[in-house]
Amino acid sequence: MTPPRAARPTLAVVGATGAVGTVVLQIVSHHADIWGEIRLLASPRSAGRKLAVRGEEVEVVALDETALAGVDVALFAVPDRVAAQWAPLAAAAGAVVVDTSGVFRTDPEVPLVVPEVNPHAVRMRPHGIVASPHCTTLSMIVALGPLHAEFGLRELVLSSYQAVSSAGREGVRTLRRQLSLVAGTELGTSPGDLRRAVGDDTGPFPEPVALNVVPWAGTADRDGWSSEETALRRETRRILGLPALPVAVTCVRVPVVTGHALTVHARFENDVTVDRAREILATAPGVVLCDDPEAGEFPTPADVVGTDPAWVGRVRRALDDPTALDFFVCADNLRKGAALNATQIAELVVGDRGGGGGARGA
Amino acid sequence: MTPPRAARPTLAVVGATGAVGTVVLQIVSHHADIWGEIRLLASPRSAGRKLAVRGEEVEVVALDETALAGVDVALFAVPDRVAAQWAPLAAAAGAVVVDTSGVFRTDPEVPLVVPEVNPHAVRMRPHGIVASPHCTTLSMIVALGPLHAEFGLRELVLSSYQAVSSAGREGVRTLRRQLSLVAGTELGTSPGDLRRAVGDDTGPFPEPVALNVVPWAGTADRDGWSSEETALRRETRRILGLPALPVAVTCVRVPVVTGHALTVHARFENDVTVDRAREILATAPGVVLCDDPEAGEFPTPADVVGTDPAWVGRVRRALDDPTALDFFVCADNLRKGAALNATQIAELVVGDRGGGGGARGA
Ligand SMILES: NC(=O)c1ccc[n+]([C@@H]2O[C@H](COP(=O)([O-])OP(=O)(O)OC[C@H]3O[C@@H](n4cnc5c(N)ncnc54)[C@H](OP(=O)(O)O)[C@@H]3O)[C@@H](O)[C@H]2O)c1
Ligand SMILES: NC(=O)c1ccc[n+]([C@@H]2O[C@H](COP(=O)([O-])OP(=O)(O)OC[C@H]3O[C@@H](n4cnc5c(N)ncnc54)[C@H](OP(=O)(O)O)[C@@H]3O)[C@@H](O)[C@H]2O)c1
Question: How far apart are CA A206 and CA A143, in angstroms?
Fold first, then answer.
């Protein structure tokens, strides 16, 4: 029996007005209603705005210590610097923080959780903070986890096709603005014409992204690798519990609004068969197999946007290596890549404590 | 001393009105003027049209036996079925055929030539036909060849980001039409919205390509691999003379007009260093190294469109394998990927025969 709302845990959505926060509100409105109060927090700029959640209009309040009082679970979907400052304060005030930013993902004392793959990890959270992985990791890890469980992963080579909304609202605005500039023109056919048309207006990206692909996401890490590339390697190792897994990856931005895709070349300890791989993927939680290319069946971002699972297609055994699989995977970077995974973690946190009002006090 | 035009070899550009043919005309207009007559051939639909070449207006004639008479080198840039029918007839009439279609690339008696990598192969042409590789192969092979020569290639994992113009004029028209439909809208944010907006009007592609990426290029080959994927493997092996090279590849179409890109994970016999790899790439013919990501230097299709070389950036040693390099390479699929390579082959054929009028009679 569901307890009355007043007896249920309070959820704060911090960054409720953002690209990820907006989707969190949609998801909690459709999932089983386990929350008591749902409080919407954002910057003072948004205070007073009303947003719909569970069919009701709720007023956004500015993030401050008062707004965090009495919160059981605080789902953070704010820029890194805001998360770095406020997540520890929310935890100190008694909330379990579920953070979608990059700030805590490398902290060994903050678990990095994908509920379909390593749900147990959520319990060890000495700082009261749980991190949700990077959207690119999340877009492929639910497909990789069960294949690893069956065949034993030995090496990964990845390439990404990353949507602009993973750079937030500003990423989407930038692509839309550039698309309006290029539509109906002959741009994209002579050297530098796109760059001249777009000018310095490249938003969060280093180059024009409309009619282009940009092989650089994040900041410089080491030896020529970008921060998103090393994050994908580090997070995959950590979530799968394979600290020495060889991972090579190139992250590339593409002119897609929402929906990350990756090509995956995965080498395993044992020989693989496509039939067994398909069986595993067809039954894996959070995964949909969509794989009959001759009949036009393979996932694309346009098909998966707005959906929860990771969609897998183009499953093939490598032609020259019986231990390797190639496949293509696609997921909504705002859903499984952020809002959905974080909401699932929040639900897991509450479920682990008896599914009721005890979350905060435990 | 250059002989007078009348003494120089006759070039026929077959498919002069197409996406590739148009670029052939630009290139021969800018390269050293080694040709006598340049004859422009296309379908009867185009007969009588005038196109500019070497600063002169030349009338297009319909492809038939008369139009092929007296031709020394016939550069074919027509659909497969037209090449299959007419290339052997042109060769029988005495021309050396340089073909850009897919028809002859798998024929062991037709050399598959990249002038920077295997120029010697052009001499063995028992049928009088030389094939130019697939545009995706050409976009990366000039960078890979010299790295192989230095380090000894042992394995390749590739992912492509393929432009729509490699599907010809119809590919470009399709993307432009779809872009006009999506610009200024909110499309690309809910499941299936793009597909509904675009309708069945997907042109040569199986799915909408604007605001999307499509992991299927070509037709079904075997075991789930597409024809473009197996072609890239087969052609790379053949051009590099490595008949057993393991190659895994996923070909993906992206909403770019012109400019193919690939991510390359290359494993070699010997340990590699990034410094030595950069040195090799910086001096390799037909390659430009553009690799300082912190300063915003990496190639993108928008930078390379309309240029001749393959541009390489993001050169890194794999973090977990001292014998492996990762890099990103980008080239104009209509230039190096087709028209330029074919023109270079044509020039090689003529050069091999003394650079003069003897091409046909030799
Ligand atoms: N987008 C993705 O695909 C994705 C995936 C995984 C993880 N993430 C991470 O999720 C987080 C949010 O990303 P996003 O894409 O949703 O960004 P976004 O669209 O730019 O939204 C940012 C949110 O943070 C709020 N905010 C900004 N400054 C604040 C402050 N000083 N105090 C309180 N709230 C503040 C904004 O509120 P106002 O509206 O009031 O400015 C807005 O709600 C980031 O850490 C990002 O790295 C994003
Ligand atoms: N686009 C690329 O990036 C690329 C790269 C490598 C190789 N290729 C290959 O190059 C070839 C040409 O491709 P494209 O992209 O230039 O195609 P395209 O833009 O569709 O042009 C096709 C050309 O073939 C001519 N043609 C069609 N039917 C003919 C016939 N029955 N007799 C004579 N000419 C005929 C057309 O003449 P009309 O104008 O009179 O119809 C036109 O000039 C194809 O085999 C393609 O696979 C293309």
Answer: 31
Report the atom number in ligand 2 closest to the C-alpha of B101. Answer: 45
Question: CA dist A163 to A160, A210, A358, B120, B291, Å?
Answer: 9, 11, 39, 44, 23
Q: What gap in Å lies between CA B259 and CA B163, rounded to an integer?
A: 6
Strand locations in chain B (E): 11-14, 38-42, 50-53, 56-62, 73-76, 96-99, 129-131, 153-161, 247-250, 260-268, 287-289, 310-317, 324-331
Q: What pLDDT score was predicted for residue B5?
A: 86
Per-residue pLDDT band at A353 (split at 50, 70, 90) = low
Give the one of A208, A211, A300 whose C-beta lies nearest to B257's C-beta.
Answer: A211
Residue A96 pLDDT exceeds 50: yes
Whether A3 has a pLDDT exceeding 90, the answer reads no
pLDDT at B317 over 60: yes
Q: Judge contact between A114 and A122, C-beta under 8 A.
A: no
A66, A39 contact by CB (below 8 A): no
Residue in A189, A223, A321 nearest the CB of B305: A189
CB contact under 8 A, A303 and B161: no
- pLDDT tens-place string over residues A272-308: 999 999 999 999 999 999 999 999 999 999 999 999 9
Q: What is the DSSP letter of A3?
A: P
Q: CA B1, CA B5: separation in Å to the nearest integer?
A: 12
Name the residue at shortest CA distance from atom 39 of ligand 1.
A17
- Position A124 pLDDT exceeds 70: yes
Q: What is the ipTM of this complex?
A: 0.94
* DSSP characters over A339-354: IHHHHHHHHHHHHHTT
Q: Which residue has the tokens 């069960």?
A: A146
Mean pLDDT within A84-100:
98
Contact assignment for B306 to A194 by CB distance below 8 Å: no
Instruction: Report whether pLDDT(A329) > 50.
Output: yes
B252 close to B215: Cβ distance less than 8 angstroms: yes
**In angstroms, what is the span from residue A286 Cα to ligand 2's centroid?**
44
How many CA atoms within 13 Å lie on the side-chain side of A234? 17
Mean residue pLDDT of chain A comes to: 94
Q: What is the pLDDT of residue B355?
A: 41
String of DSSP letters for A85-152: HHHHHHHHTTPEEEE-SSSSTT-TTS-B--TTT-GGGGG--TTSEEEPPPHHHHHHHHHHHHHHHHH-
Looking up tokens 């590099």 gives B240
Q: Picking from A151-160, B97-106, B195-204, which range would have the lowest pLDDT averaged per residue? A: B195-204
On average, the pLDDT of chain B sits at 94
Closest CA to B338 of B133, B146, B67, B37: B133
Pocket of ligand 1 (CB under 6 A): A 15-21, 42-43, 45-46, 63, 77-80, 82-83, 100-102, 135, 165-166, 168-169, 333-334, 337-338
